[in-house]
């Protein structure tokens, strides 16, 4: 793959992430991690982000992701969750509580292909 093709692919992945951020806010409420005042709100917001990313991964291949970052193809997709982890610490959410909440909130998020299936396996607390 040429350098320009890699740049285009990296830009495409960035667009997916940005679209996920915009899509998570489409209901008119602030769904940023900092706006969460409870662990429940934080997990709901994280689940919205996850749904949007999964939706935007439809039709993507692992080769698409590897072209942008061969050593860590899913890193750019997982990076948006760092602020959620930080906010969970600030709110005093414990791991068990987050798992219980995520089990309920993440129900119904179904992978639409191998890339989104792998992505979901890497997002913490998405499986019960």
Could you walk me through the main structural features you see in this protein, from its secondary elements to its overall organization?
- 63% of the residues lie in helices and 0% in strands.
- The protein has 128 residues and is an all-alpha fold.
- It has one domain.
- The longest helix is centred in the N-terminal third of the chain and has 22 residues, at 3-24.
- The protein starts with a helix and ends in a 6-residue tail after the last helix.
Task: Summarize it.
This protein is mainly α.
Write the layout of secondary structure elements.
Blueprint: H1 3-24, H2 39-56, H3 62-68, H4 75-78, H5 82-91, H6 95-105, H7 114-122
Helix pairs in contact: 1-2, 1-3, 2-5, 2-6
Descriptive labels:
single chain, 128 residues, mainly alpha, 7 helices, globular
Level of helix content? 55-70%
- Approximately how much beta-strand content do the residues carry? under 5%
Please work out how many helical segments DSSP would assign. Answer: 7
Low-pLDDT stretches are 4-12, 18-28
Order of helices and strands: HHHHHHH
Mean model confidence by pLDDT: 81
The secondary structure category is mainly alpha
Strands, count: 0
Sketch the major β-sheet.
none
Query: What global shape is seen?
Result: globular
How many structural domains are formed by the residues? 1
């Amino acid at each position: 793959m040429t350098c320009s093709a890699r740049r285009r692919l990296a830009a495409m992945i960035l667009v997916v992430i940005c679209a996920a951020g915009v899509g998570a806010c489409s209901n008119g409420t602030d769904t940023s991690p900092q706006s969460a005042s409870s662990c429940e709100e934080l997990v709901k917001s994280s689940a919205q982000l996850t749904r949007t990313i999964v939706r935007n991964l439809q039709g993507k291949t692992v080769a698409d992701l590897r072209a942008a970052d061969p050593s860590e193809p899913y890193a750019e997709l997982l990076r948006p969750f760092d602020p959620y982890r930080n906010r969970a610490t600030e709110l005093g959410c414990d791991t068990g509580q987050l798992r219980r909440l995520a089990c309920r909130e993440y129900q119904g998020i179904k992978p639409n292909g191998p890339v989104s299936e792998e992505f979901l396996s890497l997002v913490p607390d998405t499986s019960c």
